[in-house]
Amino acid sequence: MCSFVNFNINGSHYKLPVIYGTFYEKAINISKLRESTGLITFDPGLKNTGITKSSISFIDGEKGELLYRGYPIEQIINQCSFIETSYLILNGELPNTAQLKSFSEKVKKFSFIHHKDINKILDNIPVFYHPMGILSSLTYILDAFMNSIQEEDLYLHLLAKLPILAALTYRKRMGLPPVCADPYLDYTSNLLKMFFSVPNKSYEPNPIISDTLNKILILHADHEQNCSTTTVRLLGSVHVGLFSSISAGMSALWGKLHGGANQAVIEMLEDILKSGGNIKKWIEKAKNKKDPFRLMGFGHRIYKNFDPRAKIAKKVAENVIQKLGISDPILKLAKNVEKKALQDSYFLEKKLYPNIDFYSGIIYQAIGIPKDMFTVMFALGRLPGWMAHWKEMKLNKEPIGRPRQVYTGYKKRNIK
Ligand code: ACO
Whose alpha carbon is nearest atom 27 of ligand 1? Predict the structure, then answer.
């Protein structure tokens, strides 16, 4: 479908094509606007700018819906594993039995790194350095080992190797020796073993924890053109390699207003508890424009309704805490904060609802992941999405990402 918008500038008439998406969302194609009118568009924060056509995930922010390759997140979470979801996101369709077997076997085959070289690097990174900085650095460095790998295998190498790097990052902090991948385990059970096994004990992954990890990784698997994904696409557009592009995506994800919010949420909830649990006081603080504090885990650029992932994460948190028999005052507090915030006109009028990060940290804590590893877990989950966007951008032969600006500095002048 194609139509046009007509407009006049200083008496001259112009028309620009309108393009339509699957759900009839409409976009004015302004790519020739400057050429014909001398004007550019101005959109700080890219709030109203579509930078690509994409067929990977779809968000209806008004309804609070999320689809991966057309399938609702609510169906995927109950019917697929993370590895199937990764296949779907990367390849566009769910795998049949043979495709899944071959995909999983390749991931297992590529589950190794050059431990000797990587450990030398790791040994020289201070132990107190944040795990996100370590993970993105190691991912970047790994690019150097990937020169001769065919592109189709690169995706599987990264899917196989990122859990190893994440586990090394965790184990360095804990003073534990590296553990190799176990080819007899599924993706999430292997991940847990690489994190938590200790030298003097055999490790049996707990199926409740493994299933919970599967679900939380699926919830993060893709989310269209968010800040980190856009970063990955921008780097890919100037032909930066896959591992380096993903490393840059991780740096973007680390930000507190993006994936770093999961750590910030738990820290905030702990502060609320420590200071006596007066939720009203903290909500007033978040509303106070003179105070930089924001209610972490609330609000979203696209969702102006419930984030469907937050609804699922809340149930997963309740479920794992109940099944593992944990008593967690933070979950109860989080539910009360949600309730109180959603009774407040500030949050209702601004359409600020809990996002994925509001409950995800509670899940991570329940399965033994320390706070400063939360964003690392987010990165592990987001990996298939980042890779699919990098792949799509290349297949679409997209031009380099290079925005314009409105210059407001000095006019041309001379050095006196
Ligand atoms: N607490 C208090 N007020 C908020 C919050 C919040 N969490 N979020 C937004 N607002 C207010 C802003 O102050 C602003 O008010 P104003 O219009 O009176 O100036 C208004 O709501 C709109 O906020 P923006 O920052 O303009 O909205 P934007 O879409 O750019 O930001 C964001 C979205 C960054 C997620 C924001 O809601 C926020 O900072 N939330 C807290 C951090 C967070 O949870 N990040 C995780 C996001 S999900 C993810 O990345 C995985």
Answer: 301
Structure tokens at 100: 């899944």
- Residues facing 13 on adjacent strands: 8
Q: How close is the Cα of 229 to the center of ligand 1, in Å?
A: 19
In whole angstroms, what is the distance from residue 81 CA to residue 95 CA? 11
pLDDT digits (tens, 9 = 90+) for 11-50: 999 999 999 999 999 999 999 999 999 999 999 999 999 9
Helix (H, G, I), strand (E, B) or coil at 119: helix
**Joined tokens for residue 66:** 């999320």
- Return the ∠ at Cα 86 (arms to 85 and 87), rounded to 5°: 90
Q: How far is the CA of 295 from the centre of ligand 1 (A)?
A: 8
Q: Taking residues 360-386, what's their average pLDDT?
A: 96
Question: In Å, how far are 255, 268, 275, 297 from 286, measured between CA atoms?
Answer: 19, 11, 16, 12
Q: For residue 284, give both structure tokens.
A: 């007033």
| C-alpha dist (Å) from residue 381 to 38, 105, 162 | 43, 19, 10
DSSP state of 148: T
Quick: pLDDT tens for 117-127: 899 999 999 99
- Position 405, amino acid: Q
Residues with CB under 6 A from ligand 1: 45, 257-259, 261, 286, 294-301, 350, 352, 355-357
Report H helices in 288-403: 308-323, 329-341, 345-349, 356-366, 374-395
- Tell me how far apart the alpha carbons of residues 57 and 54 are, in angstroms, rounded to a whole number: 8
List residues bridging with 374 in a β-sheet: none
CB 69, CB 56: distance < 8 Å = yes
**Burial group, residue 193, by CB count within 10 angstroms (0-12, 13-18, 19+):** buried
What are the residue numbers of the active site? 300, 357
